[in-house]
Amino acid sequence: MHLLNLKTIRIFYTIAAAALILISGCGSDEKVPETKTDTSKKDTVSGTADTKSSPGKDFFYMKSSSNNIACADCHGDGTNSDRPLTKYFSDIKGADKRKSTYLGKFTGDDVKKTAGGATLCWEAYMKMKTPMTPEQIELLNGYYASLDTNDTQSEVTYETIALPQEDRAKLKTEQAEILKLTGDPVNGENLFNNACGLCHGENASVKKVPSIIEDFDGNVKSITYNVRFGDGAMPFYKLNLLSNQDIADISAHILKINGK
Q1: Omega before 84 cis (within 30°)?
Q2: What CA–CA distance (Å, rounded) separates 143 from 79?
Q3: pLDDT tens by residue, the chain, 260 residues
Q4: Which of 46, 56, 152, 169 is the most buried (most CB within 10 A)?
Q5: SS3 assignment, position 63
Q6: For residue 50, what are the β-bridge partners?
């Protein structure tokens, strides 16, 4: 009888302990985190800008999975002036209010439909394999609208011989003028580091770019062509931001490091 009672007590405690574990598990306040898929980003970009940023700013700072370029590498938002290329290309403050962009390529409603022309950069310069989605366009437009535009012109005008179509006759004139100039390789190195270093410098972070030393058979004419018209993922530079003398100096630096 005593042994039976002892067995009964043991069985009772075993059942009670199991019940307690089951009850505590079911009644726990801990929940499985809800997983949400951000369809605006998908698998086309990688990296983040700032954990405290808005989704639009995060997307603006995200790197292309194709060549590791971000919108923020070239275009300023008022907080990234430490990136040297931002002084060579239009900033995004006021972009949502512009009536035209890309020297008239996009006008009216098309400005917002292309996120101020960002859809063109997305495919031409960031080399993305699929078009920017409506959700991504909305993210950028929302970020533009969130920026203070008190000190920004609603329209951006600039001089170029690349748009609305390439002016080949003007290019030949500039090439001839630059060939007559004496380039300063020291100043050229400084200009190169600022205007070209992100893609072509020794510590370049961009992928799939020709090496200035190994792959580029540069001469003054070809360098002028690339600067004035752009080439592939390389954008053109505005006339007032890189002068003919600047190009002569950059050319002198490139030719020097190539042993020419």
Answers
A1: no
A2: 13
A3: 444 344 443 444 444 444 333 333 333 333 333 333 343 333 344 433 443 579 999 999 999 999 999 999 999 999 999 999 999 999 999 898 899 999 899 999 999 999 999 999 999 999 999 999 999 999 999 999 999 877 666 678 889 999 999 999 999 999 999 999 999 999 999 999 999 999 998 888 898 888 777 767 779 999 999 999 998 889 999 999 999 999 999 999 999 988 87
A4: 56
A5: strand
A6: none
| Identity of the amino acid at 45 | V
Beta strands in 79-222 (DSSP E): 100-101, 106-107
Alpha carbon distance, N-terminus to C-terminus of the chain: 106
Residue 258 structure tokens: 């190539």
Q: Can you tell me whether residue 177 is helix, strand or coil?
A: helix
Cβ atoms of 116 and 144 closer than 8 Å: yes
Please, are residues 119 and 135 in contact by the beta-carbon 8 Å criterion?
Answer: no
pTM of the model: 0.77
Long-range contact set of residues 173-182: C-beta below 8 Å, sequence gap at least 24: 174/224, 174/228, 174/244, 175/220, 175/221, 175/224, 175/225, 177/244, 178/220, 178/224, 178/244, 178/247, 178/248, 178/251, 179/220, 179/221, 181/244, 181/245, 181/248, 182/248, 182/252
User: Can you say whether residue 202 is alpha, beta or left, with left for phi > 0 and alpha for psi between -120 and 50 degrees?
Assistant: alpha
Name the CATH architecture for the domain at 168-257.
Orthogonal Bundle (1.10)
Query: Tokens 């950059």 appear where?
Result: 250
> Whole-angstrom Cα distance, residue 21 to residue 148?
56
**Residue 169 belongs to what H/E stretch?**
helix 168-179
Q: On the CB side of 259, how many CA atoms lie within 13 Å of its CA?
A: 2
